[in-house]
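--- STAGE predict ---
source: upstream dedup step, 1 unique chain passed
mode: sequence only
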Amino acid sequence: MNKIFILLFLCGFQLLAQNKIPVDYFDSPLDIPIILAGNFGELRSNHFHSGLDIKTQQRSGFPIYAPADGYVKRIKVGHFGYGKALYLQHPNGYSTVYAHLQKYAGPIQEYVKKKQYDKETYELELFPDASLLAVKKGDIIGYTGNSGSSGGPHLHFEIRDATSRPMNPMLFGFDVADKRPPLIHTAFVYPSSDNAQVNRSQKPLKLRLKKQKDGNYQAEKITAFGKIGFGVGTNDQHDGASNKNGAYQIRSTFNGNERFKILFEKFSFAETRYLNRLIDYGYYKKNRDKVQKLFRESNNPLSVIVAEEDAGYVTIEAGQTSVYTIEVTDFKGNMVKIMVPIEGKDEPIVGKIEVDESQDYLVHNQGNSITKGKFSVYIPAESLYEDSYLSIESTGDTLKLHEDVVPLHKNMTISMDVSHYSKSDMGKLYIGRANYRGEPYYNTTYRNESKLSTKTKTFGTYVLAKDTVAPKITAINFKEGKWMSEKETLRVKIEDAISGIGSYRATINGNFILTEYDYKKDVLVYDFNDNIITETENKLKVIVVDNVGNSATFEATFFRKQS
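--- STAGE serialize ---
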């Protein structure tokens, strides 16, 4: 009991200590100026960005320094996502994260490489003992790169609190030059009750904005009645970079009184997908423009909403003259405003929203099972944010499952009976999501006898597809029977045009070699510094299997001098 009490006391003390954010505890992880390609809270696909993306001058290989004392508590190596990632725990209760690395450094690199060879796998996740890989402030822990789902060389850097919530690193004293106010590119008003209207319409209205001499915006006057809400599309740009980053704070007022405030200082990973409830998802999917709604709809628990009056909505009465103001502020305090004059009028509505009640009606708070032709669809409770009419149709081996303008919070399951196919064909079938050309992209497909199923969080068109073509393997920097003594790496191109690469394995003289798969270039790379080769004559064997089991084998002999 005493041990439990002490543990709870220490945890409570640690959390209490974190109420005061240390602004001089962490040094910069890089010795180059901090110029950002992405900032904290930036709106990404299905999530908020959880750190800073620090530019590395379009190059890989910059040393990364431990910003404070600590130890390595987690290492994750993957082909996608964060790629090569490193997690440090620090004595003050915070942890830091480094992603998209080119490689780790020193004892960390040796530890990872040994584990990869022990397990004979490139992808792994490790949780070293706290005493195994201690680091001191200023130690080199890795090198910047472009691994995983990175769009270019940079360092993704995070600071997380004691409960693993990502926090805005700028709060900790990291300085980024920024004298430029945020940018406004879109503003909307949304009628939000049955009798509400804006300019005699029930439909969302894109506001006409006119930029003023002081850099702020004046919207064209609107007439409105009933309960309405607003939304804004905004970005921020820092000095020395053209990247469109996210705003730090968005605040609205109605006739001078605060109505709603969004503040990007911290959030939890458990809530980040609710970004799709915050933005106008349908508008984004059609226009690639993220508009943040300045009101809290049902099933939106986001903690980045830090202030609200009447959930951010305003109610307009006939004869009322009002002003709605949106203020967008970056971390440095640069601000831009939008002023929206409103005249209250209750007029006959001419722009009504029509609902197609012939479509399937799905209730958001209960599971929904739908069967269409050969397909069955199950959408779990709380997958939809609200009750919805959805267009679901099946023709032959194609399922048109509405369109991707309605967000899903949980995976739905699509199943199909393929018993009418021969057994030889069944193993090559998969369910794929069709692109705008109608071409299927592989969705992870599960087989249970004559039934195929896949899980997805995206509406759209799904088709039954077939792949009977084996992957293709090609040598890049060597030729059969030639010497490779001057090469530092061995490179092989692996491609699969239909279902995609599922797995691969490479050996030299029968011994496993660690190859790094760069899916962005379709290349496998082996580093000769791993010292697996002990012979002058070497026989390489590469086996690649696609996602439905088609296999290809590549064999070659090369020669290399031994030092």
